Amino acid sequence: SAARRAISSFNPPNPRNPFDGPIVSNLLSFIPTDTAFHDLRGHVSNQLDALQKFAKKKGRKSSGSRRSSHDDETLQIDLLDRSYSVVQKLGEGGFGAVFEAIDLFARGDRDPDEEEFEDEDEIPKVALKVVKPRSIWEFHVLRRIHQKLSDERLKRSLIIPEALFAYHDESFLVLELCKQGTLLEIVNNAGKAGIDRAGSCSLDELLVMFFAIELMRLLEGMHRAGFIHGDMKIDNCLLRLEDVDPPSAWSSIYQPSGEGGWGMKGIKLIDFGRTIDTQLFPPNQTFIGDWPTDARDCFEMREGRPWTYQTDYFGLAGIIYCMLFGQYVDASSVVPAAPAEDGRQRYKLANAFKRYWQVDIWSKLFDMLLNPTLVQSDSQLPLCDELAEIRHEMEAWLQANCNRSSNTLKGLLKKVSLFVLGGKDGR
After folding, report:
1. For labelling, which of 52, 82, 267, 421 has a CA lying 20 to 30 Å from the CA of 41?
2. How far is it, in rounded angstroms, from Cα 399 to Cα 323?
3. Is 271 left (phi over 0), alpha (psi -120 to 50) or beta?
4. CA–CA distances in Å: residue 264 to residues 62, 258, 344
């Protein structure tokens, strides 16, 4: 195909910043047109400021009261022929903000006065990610991942992109709405939710193992398909605790296959603005970034050296570290270890694992995630089979220990659900 020929003649410098304007334009030209992409780059939108003002005013009003999504006013915005009624702001980043909105188009022409008869869960809602200056890449790469992954279970762990409206100044990415909060919120509230390890501020090891397995399985799938997420952080992991119907169908014994209701529980990964589709680049392409880095970025990135999948492995290590120790990885968390046989630098965690944890499993996993290029003699990445091997060992341990006497895995996940649904803002 023409696209394939264009890709094969694409020969960027190596290493290269994958998000340079000309590179992204090139990549987008290789991707077939998508009917859910509305290219309005000839028009100015100028709606983010009004949205921010609305959210600020609403935040002031409701700071003293429990919010429901039906309280006072909403702000209607029009994107082409679609209208959305914005309810509240969900989050903020350097890029813009994410809002909860009712999709008035999907709702049809029902009389708004009949709202009280409508079940809250039936109102079609979305998340609107509004970015300034506009961003077109995240939508396209997310659609590509959904197309390339054939495993429905993996897709459930990825946020669904419904549409993109890209204006001259701003872009509106319409995403499925997930309102159960992030994995980080659960770590921060482990004590309140009753899911902490006795006398500590971190998660019970059963939960750490469960969420680590979910993330490993997803990364393996994405890496096998040639995608690097590029921003693996605990704040980018939303909880995904769907109802099992009937509730009695949820088995008390953990099933790695997802059977017995276990496929309904897990995470939903978000924020694909720095995701790389390696299939659009020549083989052996490596990357460098020009954005600010911190202790949660891999060493290669921080030191200005080329990288590929290292960013995701180091990011995953940081997420699991945060669940185990109840804090972010910082500059002193990862220290040099005895060098590898060929003299190359090796890293390890500064913190010791508690002796009653699964020390063998965690040691093996962190050794691989912190030193991915030392695993194979030719330093090849990604390490899908090697990661899967440790994951299977973790799954077997979890299945054997999910019903230990103190807390069961199912019981802990129910507590997480209760906290998430009952605890805050009536979410």
Report:
1. 52
2. 20
3. left
4. 33, 8, 42
For Cα atoms 248, 251, 255, give the angle at the middle one, nearest 5 degrees. 150
Tell whether omega for the bond before 112 is within 30 degrees of 0, i.e. cis. no
pLDDT at 119 over 70: no
> Which tokens hold the place of 93?
């980043």
Closest CA to 354 of 324, 394, 319: 324
Write out pLDDT tens, residues 65-86. 554 545 568 999 999 999 999 9
- How many C-beta atoms surround the C-beta of residue 112 within 10 A? 11
Query: Residue 115: its pLDDT value, please?
Result: 54
Q: HSE of 43 in the Cβ direction (CA atoms, 13 Å)?
A: 11
Nearest 5°: phi and psi at 301? -65, -45
Q: Of all helices (H) and strands (E), which one includes residue 29?
A: helix 21-30
The mean pLDDT value for 373-383 works out to 96
Give 158-215 pLDDT, tens digit per residue.
Answer: 999 999 999 999 999 999 999 999 999 999 999 999 999 876 778 999 999 999 999 9
How much is the pTM? 0.94
pLDDT of residue 246: 96
Active site residues: 231
Residue 83 burial by Cβ neighbours in a 10 Å radius (0-12, 13-18, 19+)? middle
